[in-house]
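Dear Dr. K.,

Following up on our conversation at the group meeting, I've run the structure prediction for Sialate O-acetylesterase from Pontibacter toksunensis. I'm pasting the input sequence below exactly as I used it, so you can double-check it against your construct before we proceed with anything downstream. Let me know if the numbering doesn't match what you have in your notebook.
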Amino acid sequence: MHTAWAVSVPAIFSDHMVLQQKAEVTVWGSAKAGEPVTVVGTWNNKPVTTKASNLGKWSVKLNTPDAGGPYVVTVKGYNTIIINDVLIGEVWLASGQSNMEWSAAAGIESAEVEVPKASYPEVRFFNVAHQTADGPQLNLQGDWVVSTPETMKHFSAVAYFFGRELHQELSVPVGLINSSWGGTPGEVWVSPETIASDPVLVEAAAKQKEVEYGPSQPGKAYHAMIAPLIPYHIAGALWYQGESNTVAPEAYETLLPALINNWRSEWGYEFPFYFVQIAPYKDYGPYAGALLRDSQRKSLKVPDTGMVVVSDIGNNDDIHPRNKLDVGKRLANLALNKTYGKENRPASGPLFREMKVEGRKVRLYFDYADKGLVSESKALPNFEIAGEDRKFVKADARIDGNTVVVQAKSVKNPVAVRYEWSNTVKPGLFNKAGLPVSSFRTDNWPMQQ
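The predicted structure tokens came back this morning:
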């Protein structure tokens, strides 16, 4: 075979892959300029033909049916590529830093129970190898594998537990693409042009120091580990990252929406984007953890997003909490509720919505608290209140239905409230689904990071 003329496809198209159901999916690759290329899937046996461009690139769109398989996809030009054991179902992209990358092999709670039972023939994994690049790449390293105890052990634990829950609830194949890298700041996962277009992002990116364990410059992972996946059709994206952005925590309120919009723009549609709020941890700067978590909460202003709060299953002494099962399940419940319409699944813990001053008291209102709030103690911990002098004092707080009433004897005219405003917290307020209230502040006063 004349290799210079050979038709090829990127690594994301391989045996055992999962294609998004009921969608117009794109298949693409390279070939000799002008070469006719035909792609056909056995679910309908309808060939789609195109010609490689003068740059030697081609792409076609295939319409996929309801979930099912296995099928075969054939790509034919000068040579023939046969992709076997193709399933059609739900495809999710998981990305972020070490807490998303963390695997059972690295050590998780309940590994001895969960690893042996990880045989799910219709759950598939694609692990993207760590790479960097100075410009958008056309291919990456990785291949699709079937979920087994051995493959699950080395895959993202959060993504696996998420995918397993979807598979069991929806009874469809699930494809999980893990493109994450421990220790990386959010800037490396965004296009450099996006960072350069906003002075807030430029200033925050400049605070990132070079480290030996991964890239820190804008776009380096995006170019090599995200761009080559576009436009592989995904149902949505999962994100667990932020620990490395505590050097500029307030800028994350700009950075995360910029990342979401950047990815959606490149993919060409607004897929759901669900993320994990970082867990409390003792070694951040004075209030950096609280500020970062609040920036994540504020990022929910972006449409079709959701946030999982994990303050109750974190570890103040370990930046890598080992309970990944509940993180994955909470992400799955969020997706099952908001994306798949399973209203019986709890979408979120309570999120602060607004405050109203009632004389010397403040009443706090929350989303996702319709059925009421609960606490182990009558007097709620972790609330602070301040007047116009901006001096916060410990507040007396109590639940009143699905609201919280806050006051302090020394504050006659309250103007601001904070909840769980420290790097290390032990949550004391939940909704009836057992999910914790996100930390928050009602003020925007400058403070030490």
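Two things stood out to me. Residues 89-338 form a domain with the Rossmann fold fold (CATH 3.40.50.1110). The chain has three domains: 3-87, 89-338, 355-441.

Best regards,
J.T.
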